[in-house]
Each structure stands twice: as structure tokens, then as C-alpha cells.
Protein: ATP-dependent helicase
Organism: Pseudoalteromonas citrea
Amino acid sequence: MTHLPIEAIKPEFLSTITHSDVIVSAATGSGKSTCLPLWASQSGRVLVIEPRRIACTSLAEYLAQQSSQPVGERIGYAIRFESHCNENTEVVFVTPGVALRWFFEDKLNEFNIVMLDEFHERRWDMDLLLAMLKQHDQHRLIVTSATLNTAQLAAYLNAKILHSEGSMYPVDELFIASNSRAMPSKEQLAERVINACQQAILNTSGDILVFLPGKAEIQACAAVAKKLNTLVVSLYGGCSAQQQALALSVQSQQRLIFATNVAETSLTIPNISCVIDSGLERRTHLRGTKTVLGLDAISIDSAKQRLGRAGRTQHGLCIRLYGQYAPLIKSTPPEVLRENLTELILAASCSSKGIDSLEFIDALPLKSKQASVAILTSVGAIDKQGKSTDLGRKLYPLPIDIELAYLVNSMPNNSLKQAMVDMAALLSVPARVYQLPKQQEIIESLNQQLQNASDLELAIGVIRGQVTDVLIEPEALSEAIQFSELLRSAFGLPELKYAASFRHNDLVEAIACAKPTSVYIKRQNRRGAFGNGSIEVVPAKDSRINPQCNAILVLDTYALAGKGTKQAKTLAMLNAPLPISLICKLNLGERTLSKAELIDGVIIINSILSYCGVQISEKKLIPQGEVLLRACCELILNDSLFISVGKKVKEGIIYHSLYNQANNIVEELPTPEAHLYCTLKSLGIEEQQDLELIEATDLIYQGLEDWIVSAFIEKHPLTVQLNDLVMDVEYHFNAKRVTLHHRHGKRKDLPRRWELPSWLGLNIKYKKASKTVNIN
């Protein structure tokens, strides 16, 4: 660890850390991740937060080796499911998830200094930790990065900036693309990568590092690369310890290392003389309220990071599989601006005074924040003030998504809790745990074992070792089993080997009851899609759901990006058939009442239940109470009940309104519906037999005295009839005008003034079709 570029700032760092937070900006490979924690330990116990698990373990193991002590003594680490440290460990490397849980437990009181490494990756958990540490103000902070807006961060923390230039050998760049502005592309990626590898092997003696977006692309390229005369190594989150060891140590044979962004920073991969950059990465995006993973072009900052790997120890070469002037974005947006904030907000509510009390380096998007607060409030994890509830504090430490933790907690009995725990464990593993076989005879055998055509049933069977006729990913299954055992312990449930049997239909009903948005119904379109009122999904090809199924329960989705919004598709990955009757039983959806009918003297209405625009049930009801009052109003006004009363009520209100206009009286009058409703209610109508106790006259509108109404009606009729000519009368008292609207009649000549009511002081117009004329 001697003669590293970071050594140049050691004296200033040691003097500054005693009285001020420090921001260290240093190039990739300068030694900041290995030197700074040891220097800082001279001033107290140090917690180093590393964004990636591989970096966390490898850095701890490297420093422990350098100190000639086993991991867990002077230098240790803690990651999910694994801890090698004690109360005397001077420097502890942890992932952000572990740091958040420790902060929740004791505010990291056992540490004096907290170092947030590779902060430029701008993960949401790192942003949250920094905001909470800033608010807590009990630790000396060190924030490091190779590419970062240090001025913004220095102002945020009121910290001092230290910069190390680093030492870089020249790196030649070679762009392989159809034109100079060609963007990174996944088309024929494996073929283009292997061609670049062959070119690199001819032009460099050192090892070759290939940046690819994910595990699938790495495996595809690695399979083809076996024909090359090199040692092929795969490096990604969750890869085997053997592959990690091959990547992090020099080998006798030239290495071809296929890696994700995990190799951009922190990890020291020795002897790299050539980098092949696909220009692609998997990046999260927010779609609706769900975080989805998309394939994106990298940023300019990431491109610089990748190139830097080739110039650490010798003159290097960087081969780009895109155009020299491709319009890449300058930097990758922080995760808080492009991900669901539910976990962040729950962590803040449990570990601080609430999300609104924290100051973030970048303000949280209001829309995403409000959506996540709504989710947490709906499951009872936070209260209306944004503070965590007892349930929220119980769910937060669990290493699974908050909604999955809520579902486990919501199960009504022990056996269903166990089933939901095993399901949550499988969903919490990033990698795919199993795949369905392609052989038809094996599928038929599987269908005989599992009668429900349910992905839930299959997934739980895989976790419990009850289903073997599938393609298992051993490492992913092992991690899922670890999750299950951890969750079973947290909820006080039996170990996995003692898993209780459960009724599949009871599990589906319990999940649907606790999370109604997981219920989807088949839409009436050609795509065979299902909807829940918010999003539309299509069952994945390897889902066991029967195509004839009309409703399903969906526990996991995967969004496929399209060229436009209409081309985007969301796949339903983990599903179970759901009977329509269950939607009715849980009263999901919207219930509407059809028009009231009078059948054999009995008032009848149709009650229609619709879910996501699809009608699922209809039944005839004899209404009572509120519904009866509304039905009576409807029938009276269409002249089916209490004949002529509806017409008289309408005319009474119209004449009252006209009288007020004529006399400049400002008064709010009821609608016919409101008058009838209030009158029926005041008369005590609750059941249909109550209607027999009232008379039609009880319902008549009496807003004015009879003698006033009679005199006004005589002078201001609503209809005028001259033989077969019938006209409706429209009064405009403020404009001193009356308009006669032709209703029917064959008379061709205009009405004469002497044939009409006197209407003193009012001008008279006659309107037939689109033609209006004055009557003099």
C-alpha cells in the first residue's frame, strides 16, 4: 500500500479529520478506499460504507491480509447474512443496508468516524445515510469519490475538500461503430464483443476487462469466449467466490474478465491493460410507483471511470463499441430521482424525526415522495404525521421489501405466514432462482404434482425442496433459503425443514384481502392482458397460469421498455389463478346501481359490481334506506310512482325561480331531486311499505303561497297554444325579453301580438329552427 497517489494528501487529511468533515476527490486506483480508513482509525473507530458487496468483502480481506491478522480482528466486514467483526474491530466495512439497520438500532454510537465510499454512485441508501448522519451530527464524516460535484457536497456538509490527482498512464481510445454518433446498442452485442476481444488479444499483453450491462450478457459472451486462448472470468454481484478470487489476483494465463459496473470503482483488478466498453448498463427507472430495471447507455462520467481501469499500471487501450461523439448524458441521475422511495421514507421515519425533517443533497421528487407516503400510510407503517408506527418499526429491520413484509404480517394464521415468508424469500433474491423445463413430459409430470396451475404454489415448493422437476440456480436458491430462515426466525416461525402445509386457495384469498392491488382481471382486448385499475400486465411466457383464466393474483412484475408508451409491456411473473367469486366476496371494485324499476308494484334496482371496467356480477335488490329514497325520487320524476307529482314538483320549482327573477329576489332553490329526497326523508320513508302511509299531496312543492303562484302562472304561462301551434316560453326578465320556441304545429305565419298574453314591458321573439324574428 506504499507509494500510492493518495499518500500526497496524508498529512493534510490527518490534520483535517480531527476538526472537520472531509471530502476526498481522487482518481480511480489512487488508494483512497484502502488508505483513508486506516489513517482515520488513528482518530477513532471507523465504519466504511461500500455501495457494493463484492467491494466490501474484498477490501476488508485485502486490508486484513496486509495487517497480518485474520478478518474480523483489526479489520472486519458485515454484509447480509454474514458478519466478521467484534466490538474491538477498528475498521468495519459494511454495505448500506447493514449501515441503515445499525443506525436504526443505536445511531452507530459505537463508531467515531463514518466513511461513505464511492459516493458518486449516488445510491438512495447512501444519500439517506448522509442526510441522517448530517442531522445526527455525532460522527466525523469522510465522503469519497472519483467523479463528484465536490463543491455542492462541500456546501451541503460544510466540509473541506481534499484532492488527489492520482497517477495514470496514457490510454489510447479506439471507437468501433457504424458512425461517429452511434449510441451504445445491444444488437449483436456478443458478436461485437468477441471481435473486440480478438483485436485486444493481438494488441495487448496484459489482461482484458470487458464492461457489460448484466449477468445474462456476461454469460452469453463468456460462453462464446471459451474458444479464445485466455482464462475467462465472470464478475458480477452474486458471482461465486472462486470467480471473485480469479478476478482480484494476477494469474499466469492472460485473463478475459467480463464484468458489470461492479468493476468500475473500489475493486482493484490488477494487470488490466485493455478495457472493452459496451457503453451499456442496467439502470433503474420509476414507472408509476414501481422501480424497474432498464437497459441504458452509460454516462460520460462512467465512460471515464471505465477507461481509467486500463491505465493504472501500464500504457493502456480502451475499445469503445459506440461512436466517438455519441450523445451520452453527462452523469447518471441519483437514484432518489429515479426510484420508488418507499423504503427510504420508512427508514427515515424509523431512524430520524421523519422524512420532512431531513435535508437531502438533492431534494426528493414531490410526486414520488407523495406516492410512497401513501403506500406506507395505507399499510399502517407510518401515521398521518409521517412518523413510524409500531408495525413500521417491526417491519423495517426485515431485509425484504416493505410490502412483502406487510403481507407476511397480515397472514391470518401460522401456516399461511410460513407460506408467505417462503414466497417473500424467493422474491427478495435478485437472481432468478428457478426456470421451468422445456421438455413436455417433465411439464406434464409437474402439472400432476401441482394441481393449481399456480406460480405461487411452484415457487414455495421449490424453496421447500418439494419440487425438483425445474432448473435450479443453486446459489440463488441458497440465498433464498437463507432469507426464509432469517424471516422465519424474525416472525417466530418454525425452521424451513418443519414447514407447515397450507391451503392454496386460502393463501390467495389472504393476499388478495391484504393487498387488493395484486388482483388483476382479464381485460376485453386482444392482448390477453389483465388490469388492476392502475396498470396492465401480460402473464410471462413461463407462467403456469392457464390462458383461459379470467382473473389472477400477481405478486411480481417485470417491465419491458418499448419505443413508446404504448409499446411498453409489463409482464406478470409470479401469479396464481383467482376465482371471480373472490372479487365479489371481498367487494373489490366499484358497485353501481342501475335505474329503478316498478315491477308488480315493487321497486326493484340492479346492483352491478365492476372491477377495472369489467362487469363481474349483477343482482336485483329491493332497496331500503338511502338507496330506496334515491329510487323513489327517480321513479316519481319519470312519472312511474305517484303519477303527475313529478311534473308538478318540476313546474313548482320553475315558477318559483321565474317569480324570483321577475322580482329580483336572490334565493337558492332546491332541485326537484333534492326536494323529493328531503321530503321523503322527513316523512320517515325507510322501507317500501312506508310509502302506503303518505299521499301525493305530501310531496308537492310549496315554495310560494298558492295565491301568489296562481296569479303569476296566469300572467306567465310556460306553454302557449294557438290551435295546432304549440310553443314553449323562455323568460329573460333582466333583458326584458320573452322567447317563444316552436315545439310543433303546421302554422306558417307568425303569431300575432294580440293572440299572445299581454307580457307588458317585455319584447317578444319567436324562434323556429335556427331562425329568430321579433313579434311586434
About this structure: Residues 645-662 form the longest helix (18 residues). The radius of gyration is 37 Å. The mean pLDDT is 90. Residues 717-775 form one domain.
